[in-house]
Design a protein that fits this description.
Largest sheet: 8 strands, mixed
Number of helices: 10
Oligomer: single chain
Shape: elongated
Structural class: alpha/beta
Strand content: 15-25%
CATH superfamily of the largest domain: Spore Coat Polysaccharide Biosynthesis Protein SpsA, Chain A
Bound molecules: uridine-5'-diphosphate, magnesium ion
Low-confidence stretches: none
CATH topology of the largest domain: Spore Coat Polysaccharide Biosynthesis Protein SpsA, Chain A
Length: about 300
């Protein structure tokens, strides 16, 4: 008998929880030979999310709650859930808002039973539009180019990790976490299962656009040194250009060719342009420095307030 655990971070998901519970129960009932459990990580919700999950845990022993002491963010909540899934043979990671349909879980499990240790749920279609959509596309393209650990476009949290992959993942203690990248980093045989991404069943996305941008930057800075190298290259190119221009003026001076001393516009443009490049360079350094600072503080990624159902 296989033990399969779902890890579901939840933040203010009161409106979707009843339907989520119902659909999970249906999935569990459809494969009674499996020992199912669902770990909900309450990420400091301000509504009745924790109460609903506790009530469900009291009714159904398969449902468990890890209650965090405040809102730590989606990635930290996911990390907390994976750390509590030690007993499972495989862990399914998914969002609570039913954008990741629970009905796909049996397919993920089937792919795992065929030998894959990491199963990715790949979106055939995406409901997001406009700025969000453009942002996702841009990020995926940039990420593929910048890092050595390509993350498959159109994959997110949704997927399955076999026990060895979960154990490997739990050893990664970094503070700025980017789950899809870390999942690519741990390796193991991968498989893919396709699905159509749904609209959020109810409620508002807790991941604001600003958070998504920060998440995207975390992904890039945590998995690539290329931004630093780009600063170096830009510096080399501007220094080379400066040298060439300097040489040009010296030679012209030596040949005795003098022209009127204007060039104010050129100077202003150059000063501002170079100043700008330097500030960007410092900014890139700062991104890494801030991350190093967060790492050396060695604070835990989350604090657990209470657990029920364990
Ligand atoms: N979530 C969380 N903490 C947060 C924000 C979101 O645990 O601070 C959960 C949320 O309840 C959901 C999942 O993370 O289960 C994904 O969030 P959301 O649907 O808002 O993100 P999106 O679908 O826009 O990526
Ligand atoms: Mg969502």
């Amino acid at each position: 008998m296989h033990r399969i655990t779902l890890v579901i971070p939840v933040f203010n998901e009161e409106p979707v929880l009843p339907e989520l519970f119902r659909r999970l129960e249906t999935v569990f009932a459809s494969a009674p030979e499996t020992e199912w459990s669902a770990i909900f990580v309450n990420d400091g919700s301000r509504d009745r999310t924790a109460a609903l999950i506790s009530a469900q845990a009291a009714r159904q022993p398969a449902f468990k709650l890890v209650d965090l002491s405040r809102n730590f963010g989606h990635q930290a909540a996911l990390t907390a859930g994976l750390a509590h899934a030690g007993e499972a043979d495989a862990v399914v990671t998914m969002d609570a808002d039913l954008q990741d349909p629970p009905e796909l879980i049996p397919e993920l499990v089937a792919a795992w039973k065929q030998g894959a240790q990491v199963v990715l749920a790949v979106r055939r279609s995406r409901q997001d539009t406009g700025l969000r959509r453009a942002g996702f596309d841009l990020f995926h393209r940039a990420f593929q180019r910048l890092t050595d650990f390509p993350v498959k476009a159109n994959t997110g949290t949704f997927g399955l990790l076999g026990r060895p992959a979960v154990e490997a993942f739990n050893q990664l203690s970094e503070k700025h976490r980017f789950f899809p990248g870390m999942r690519a980093w741990v390796g193991f045989p991968h498989a893919e299962v396709f699905y159509d991404r749904q609209e959020r069943a109810a409620g508002e996305p807790g991941q604001t656009f600003r958070r998504l941008v920060r998440y995207a930057l975390d992904g890039i800075f945590s998995f690539s040194h290329l931004p630093l190298r780009l600063v170096t290259y830009t510096g080399l190119i501007t220094a080379g250009l400066g040298f060439a221009i300097g040489l040009f003026f010296i030679v012209r001076r030596l040949l005795g060719i003098e022209i009127a001393q204007t060039g104010f516009t050129t100077l202003v443009t150059l000063v501002l342009f170079l100043g700008g490049i330097q500030l960007v360079g410092i900014g890139v350094l700062g991104e890494y420095l801030g991350r190093i600072y967060d790492e050396v503080k060695r604070r835990p990624n989350y604090i657990v307030k209470s657990r029920s159902g364990f």
